[in-house]
Each structure stands twice: as structure tokens, then as C-alpha cells.
Amino acid sequence: MRVIIPGLNNKANGLPDLPLVIWMILVTLLCGVLAGYDASALISGFNQGYGASIGEFALILIPSFVLAAAIEQQRIDMSPRVSVGMAPFSAAGMVCPDTAYAALSPMCLQRKLPMAFGAFAGFKLLFPAGPLIVAASVAADTSTTLLLSVTIFIPVWLTGLLYGRMIEDRILGQPVHTGARLQISYSSLCALLPFLILAILLVIGVLFDMRFNVWADFVTNPKGALIVSAAVALAKIPASDRRPAVDKGVRRAAELLVIIGAASAFSMVVTSVVPVEEIFMGSTSELVTLLTLFLLTAAFKVLQGSSMSVFAAVGPIAAPIVAAAGISPVLAALAICLGSFIAILPNDSFYWLVRQDAMPDKSELVVTSALVAGAVLQALVGMVLLLALAAFNIF
């Protein structure tokens, strides 16, 4: 996870090649020193910010990555059309578009680009991936965020499907065979059981008040539903593979938890120095603030590449902006998710996965243009819809 400016040599531009988390810690400490904090106050503020939301994110990330690690060990065998349809939901459930694409690609000999853009959209806009992670940062209501994210996801997903088909038909020149049978094996359905359980629990939690029973209330909460789904996924793999899957999930979560802590500390220290309230309170419309969050996230994505790192870093930084502007945290969460679409660049591992699998014989210019244009188009479609919903106070 390093700060890379596409097209520029890091040594030539004088920037040290450091991980994002180190950059945030250094900038946080520098801001505190320049603001005149003494050592005790600076370290105290850093500590308070660092631990502000770690617990909540741990309950999201650890079971999500354990679920993904367990699913990775099960072969999902299905027809290409089903693979394309399953891509966004697999990417959301695995909390990783790369893993979902890699798992489904062997069964999808055609329409790889629609599958890729579908996985990208699902990871950004479906629970328990992007919206749940960002909602926790900006204190957005999870039920309303779930409803809005699905509303925006549908046109964004369809945009990616149509764009991917157009690129394959007109630019890549790949023939399409429509005679393949729609097949889903029993083993495939069993492999998808944890996702089904997760979806059912989330829907029950949205539709019904389960507070009459503490257990029912917990398992229909997104965090409890994730733990149940991860447990089901672990139960489906051999006992000897369960501990390695848990270890892998914990390692993946630990790296992001460090970034989230650093971003929270950065937010606390910087907002005590920068008058965020004066900048955003009463002087900026809701639409302008949403665009600001969208562009802020897009800038992080272009520099960082990793979508998970962007979610981890931007959420805590955006939280005081949302509070100061007085805008809907739900709308803010989705603006951040949509900003993270921009863009699929060479500093994103998803770029190389799709490039090598779907367009191995095309030039870097063609690949980059196709992937960037598709991701930006999805982002703009989603953002136009979000701004329309905000303008008419629908959410």
C-alpha cells in the first residue's frame, strides 16, 4: 500500500516511497507540531483518535475476510451468464473484487469485462463491503444506507454491463456464443450458502424490529450477520483448513485496521487545527459537500490504488466534514463509495488481474482507456442519481 502518482517517477518527484499509513502518521504529527502542541497533548490526541473506531471496524473486517478466505477454498462451478450475474454479489461477500473475479473467471470464458465491472460495482456499493465500511466511519444508519446503496447499485451495475459488452463487441472483437446452457451445480449452490444466509439476515434486520430478543437482534445486525455467515463458511471447509482461513482473514483485516487507526488519528489532530466547522457549516450546500467528498475520495483512489485502503483512510477524514456540514451521513457515505470508482489504474491490483485475463493481447493504452472510462462512467451515473435523490430530499 504505497503512495504512487501514476505516470511519475517517485524518485524524480522527490517523494519518499512510503506506505500510506506512514504518510498519514507523519502528516498528523507534523500538523500537531506546527500547531504548537506539546508532546504530551500531541500523543494524547493521537491515541484518542487512533482508537476511536477500531473496535467497530474489527467486527466488520475480521469476519468479512474470514468469510472470503473460506469461500476461496471452494470451487464455484457455473455457466458464464451465471458468473456475470454473481460477480457483484460475490465481490461484496468476499469484500474483494479481485478474489471474486479470479474465482469466477475460469467459468466465464466470455463477457469477462461485464463481469469485471459488475464485481467492481458490487464491491463498492453492496453490503458488507464499501457501504458498510464507510457507514461505520461517518455514523450513517446501516438500514437506510443498505436501501440507498442497492438503489444506486442497480443502474451503476447495468451501466457497467452495457459498457463492458460494447467494449468486447466493438473494440476487442470477441465473438459471442449464445447457445450455452444455463447451468448451476449443486456444489455451486452450497458454496454460495453463506452469502444467502448473510442476505436473509440483513433483510430481516432491515424489515423487522428484532430487539425483543438479544440473540435475534445481534444476528440480524450487519456485524452479527457477518459473524454467522463466516461461521457457516468455515463449517463447510475441512477442519484442517479452518485455522489457516481464520489466520488469513485476521492478517488482511489487521493491515486495514492499522490504516483506519492512523486515519482516525489524522482526522482528530488535523480537524483540531483546521477550522472544518467554519469551512463547511452553513456556507456550503449539501450538493457541494457531496461533490467535495466525491472528489476527495477520487483523489485518494488515484494516488493510492487500493480501494480498501481508500475506504479505510477517507471515512474517518470525512466524518468531521459531514458533521460540520450537517448533511445526511447516508448520502455522504454513498458519495464516498462512488468517488472510489475513479479509477481502475495500473496502481490498482484489479487492473492487472483484468488486463492479463480479459485483454492480454491489447496495448496498455487500450486497456487503461477501456478500464478507466468504464469506471468513471459508472461513478458519474451513480453520482448523478445520488445528487438527484439529495436535491429532492428522497433520502
From TrEMBL:
Signal peptide positions (record): none
GO cellular component: plasma membrane
TM regions (residue ranges): 20-37, 49-71, 83-104, 116-140, 146-163, 184-208, 214-235, 256-274, 280-300, 321-345, 365-392
GO-annotated molecular function: gluconate transmembrane transporter activity
Entry coiled-coil feature ranges: none
Key words of the record: Membrane, Transmembrane, Transmembrane helix
Pfam (any one): GntP_permease
InterPro entries reported for this sequence: Glcn_transporter
Superkingdom of origin organism: Bacteria
Keyword check for Transmembrane helix: yes
Name used for this protein in its record: GntP family gluconate:H+ symporter
Species of provenance: Halomonas salipaludis
